[in-house]
Amino acid sequence: MESKKLAALLSSLVSELLVLVLLLFPSDSCNSNSWDFNSNSHGILFRIIRHYLSCQELATSLSLFPISKKRKRTQLREAGSEPTHEDRDLERGSRLGELNRVAHNPDSFKATFRMRSSTFEWLSGLLEPLLECRDPIGTPINLSSELRLGIGLFRLATGSSYIEIAERFGVTESVTRFCAKQLCRVLCTNFRFWIAFPAPTELELVSKDIEGLTGLPNCCGVIDCTRFNVVKRNDCKLTSDDEVQDDSIAVQIVVDSSSRILSIVAGFRGDKNDSRILKSTTLFHDIEGRRLLNGTPVIVNGVAIDQYLIGDGGYPLLPWLMIPFVDAVPGSCEEKFNAANNLMHVFALRTIASLKNWGVLNKPIEEEFKTAVAFIGACSILHNVLLMREDDSALIDAGDYSLYDQGSQFYKDAMTEENLTEKKASDSRRALATRVTEFS
């Protein structure tokens, strides 16, 4: 079969599969101010789809899918006649197509869209059915899927204002707003499965990778929390004394040793401390209810070590959540455990740094709170997509990742005496400290 026909067939199959998933698992995430996702919400089906989409054969086939196949042909009009709305849209599309040809220069493409051109083409083909089917009622956009994707990604990648994007792409400001929000809506509603807590078999591989790096057995990831500032500007009167309302969004993530996001919760107000946020999430209740991290324990020095996460001092010590020792003596096994804990923490901080490298997130987000949450969710999904595609645009090397460590600002009595003396958790942590000493 010819490559183009094969690509079209695969694209059609993917589209039909996505529609089926949406019918079976409807999502109301974009109608809420919060975004809380873990694999228990959608089960094994989403993990199967994610694996299917990540196959190299499919990625290669979709990258062959022809671009701009729905771009309308220009119709000649009589000399001196006024251009119609369609004429204007076509002229804008022409200028936009020219910009995309320039942007395909490898030197500028990453700066413009934060991904390689091959990833952009693959993503455009995959999202095409959803990007082109939801125009505003009565006002069709008449832009192809890759142009809509380009406008949305440009907003996320650079953080440019809608006015700046409109001028650069030759469209109206309302079109830029629509394309940016539509991209986030499609990703957060239809492609949430790109962030999924691993199935038990995959979780074993995650644990082995972590143990090989740190000496910590049965560790399934690291949890951390960061904040994104939001600014809502009330500039309806267009005066020099515009009212500015400051807010922040707390975002909790769990990542593995490759900085892949396994779970994310976004939407809590930023003034809540990390421990309170954790206890308010479905992740916490799923783990406490033994629906997650319920694999076979590992015996270390006679102690059964359940599957667990690594956290910093902003979290409580729990049987499934190991935090650093306080005031560890230099050279002791406790200090070496803390060093392994800090190494794991770097993976989370690197993920946070990479998320904040998206232009729209590296400064106060000038959007409604709900829209800002959607932007964070979309950038998180794209972060995992880039890792899946082995696109080196995903991660940044910040050197000193402590600059992104906000946890100490939100400890606020996160630990209690009851947590610190809980026997099972304390015994597990001591046994792990001994194992790390043997590893080093």
UniProtKB/TrEMBL annotation:
Q: Source organism's superkingdom?
A: Eukaryota
Q: List, for all copies, the residue spans of the domain called DDE Tnp4.
A: 224-384
The residues forming the signal peptide are 1-32
Q: Where in the cell is it found?
A: Nucleus
Q: Which InterPro entries match?
A: HARBI1-like (IPR045249), HARBI1_dom (IPR027806)
What's the cofactor?
a divalent metal cation
Q: What keyword terms does UniProt attach to this protein?
A: Hydrolase, Metal-binding, Nuclease, Nucleus, Signal
What Pfam families does the database record attribute to this sequence?
DDE_Tnp_4
Q: Does the keyword Phosphoprotein apply?
A: no
Protein family (similarity comment):
Belongs to the HARBI1 family.
* Protein's recorded name: DDE Tnp4 domain-containing protein
Q: Which organism is it from?
A: Salix suchowensis
